[in-house]
Amino acid sequence: MAYPSSQSHVKPRRLSMSKPAMPFSKSQYIIFFPLSFILIISLFMFNASNDELNLSVAQKPKHDSCEGRRIFIYQLPTEFNDRIALDCQNYTFRDWSMCDDVRNDGLGNLMNLDAASDPAAPLLQPSSAWYKTDQFSLEVIFHRRLLTHTCRTEDPAQASMFYLPFYHTLDVSRNLFNPDLTVRDHLTNRFVSWLRQQEPWQLHHGHRHVLTLGRIIWDFYRHPEYEPWGSSLLRQPELGNVTTLLIERCTYGMSVCDNAVAIPYPTNFHPASDAALRSWQTAVRNVKRTRFITFAGSARSGALHNMTGTVRGELFTQCAESPKCKHLLCTQELCADNVQTLYKLYSESVFCLQPAGDSPTRKGIFDTLLSGCIPVVFARNQTVEQYLWHLPGNGSNYSVQLDGETVAFDHYDVMGHLERIPKEEVERLQESIVQLIPRLLIRNHKLEAEYTSKDAIDVAIESLFEWFERGDPQK
Ligand SMILES: *[C@@H]1O[C@H](CO)[C@@H](O)[C@H](O)[C@H]1NC(C)=O
Ligand SMILES: *[C@@H]1O[C@H](CO)[C@@H](O)[C@H](O)[C@H]1NC(C)=O
Ligand SMILES: *[C@@H]1O[C@H](CO)[C@@H](O)[C@H](O)[C@H]1NC(C)=O
Ligand SMILES: *[C@@H]1O[C@H](CO)[C@@H](O)[C@H](O)[C@H]1NC(C)=O
Ligand SMILES: *[C@@H]1O[C@H](CO)[C@@H](O)[C@H](O)[C@H]1NC(C)=O
Ligand SMILES: *[C@@H]1O[C@H](CO)[C@@H](O)[C@H](O)[C@H]1NC(C)=O
């Protein structure tokens, strides 16, 4: 396939680290947590026998498969997880609650679409598998899932992976805009002191320890000299050998980047059976794709987001001028709060434009793939350099990659490029995406029936063990 120009893959200067991803929309910060859930959550977190209740039919342990691959989950003081979640009512700078997002083990509330009035309802089936999951909920989802893992052990001497269920993203989200850094770093410092005392951490020098962080890496790597955005967690020497799983990593060859792996953004489909998964794959294969190109995206405003000379700005123009392109100008209400509209749109589209926004990666790329729409991306750091375990290869099996600079500065004709792609190539991409779907989504750990596919969390855990055994994440 012709590319507009060779990938000019210039290593960004280190300085660019100081420019963090800008604050996300308000909806992404709050967590609200009804009191009735407090009890339930604490039961599930600290009572092993209750976890057993969650074990599904399909999940009966095969003991030998756990040999050498047992997982120890630290029982952290509650100030590092439960109490943070409970504090969600205190997110006063938002006008609604993020407590909804922590419900159902981090999957959030069911979408519960009205079959009579919501045009997306017939498509998003079975309705019991579709949730209003928040894109920054990975910490909670990952932790709750691990609690039910068949290879979990409570004896650190048996373990070869050590999981740290610190809900740091939730903590940081409370204080991202707090100029008082002692407040913002309060729990980070306490966590690090706690970690230093732990025997497994001492014994393994922090290796084989895993921490999930629900946001992009720059939110946790505050530079002491530049604009003080984010937390300082990943600057702490104690975290030096700890593996972090995030929705976006960095690719600069620094050790903090080497120890960070990107895993897919949580999307909104969480099937609880093979049947539910297969029926979605069938729907994606059979849906009538009546739109050729879709671009769901918002403008960026303000001095930092001057869109002149950006891929996003150029796509606004090109899409508006092309009868083959449909632009949904996203607002909080249209896109974030009504994500079912997006799934419907993507499911009816052949190509979905996914330019970088505040940072290179987007949840939209995973929504797009889940809907069987071919994502069009504009830099290697949007997918290929990120999701090493989940999106294998160079991207040519699941996406169209164009050179962002050529688009932004030379007005390369994106619409024309997509129209020239042969039909057979489009069909090849579509089928390969349908086959990727199972490993990109997160299943519901409360299964309704047999579930045999590996989901994003299975792939992550398997890959972590392989990494530890081999000693190198990249290979
Ligand atoms: C909310 O914040 C106040 C003041 O910081 C604190 O006293 C209170 O316990 C918090 N509420 C919850 C539910 O944690
Ligand atoms: C990280 O690992 C290296 C090599 O095992 C070790 O020398 C170093 O002390 C470890 N760092 C920490 C903070 O434990
Ligand atoms: C945006 O950037 C372009 C080129 O960099 C510049 O010419 C233009 O004045 C800027 N617009 C605003 C509103 O800052
Ligand atoms: C991602 O890649 C693009 C194009 O190579 C580059 O301009 C941008 O700075 C990179 N962003 C990050 C955060 O690495
Ligand atoms: C694309 O998929 C095919 C079939 O699964 C596989 O053989 C090939 O290695 C993949 N190519 C890349 C570049 O990942
Ligand atoms: C990806 O790999 C395939 C097979 O090796 C190759 O044909 C294709 O040109 C590569 N694409 C990119 C974007 O590197």
How are the SSEs placed, and which strands pair?
Elements: H1 35-46, H2 48-54, E1 71-73, H3 82-86, H4 99-102, H5 138-147, E2 152-153, E3 161-163, H6 168-175, H7 181-184, H8 186-196, H9 199-203, E4 209-212, E5 243-246, H10 255-258, E6 260-262, H11 274-286, E7 291-297, H12 311-321, E8 325-329, H13 332-336, H14 339-347, E9 349-353, H15 363-370, E10 374-377, E11 400-401, H16 404-410, H17 414-419, H18 423-440, H19 456-470
Parallel strand pairs: 1-2, 1-3, 3-4, 4-5, 5-6, 7-8, 7-9, 9-10, 10-11
The structure holds 2-acetamido-2-deoxy-beta-D-glucopyranose (NAG) (6 copies).
Can you describe this structure in just a few lines?
This protein has helices at 35-46, 48-54, 82-86, 99-102, 138-147, 168-175, 181-184, 186-196, 199-203, 255-258, 274-286, 311-321, 332-336, 339-347, 363-370, 404-410, 414-419, 423-440, 456-470; strands spanning 71-73, 152-153, 161-163, 209-212, 243-246, 260-262, 291-297, 325-329, 349-353, 374-377, 400-401.
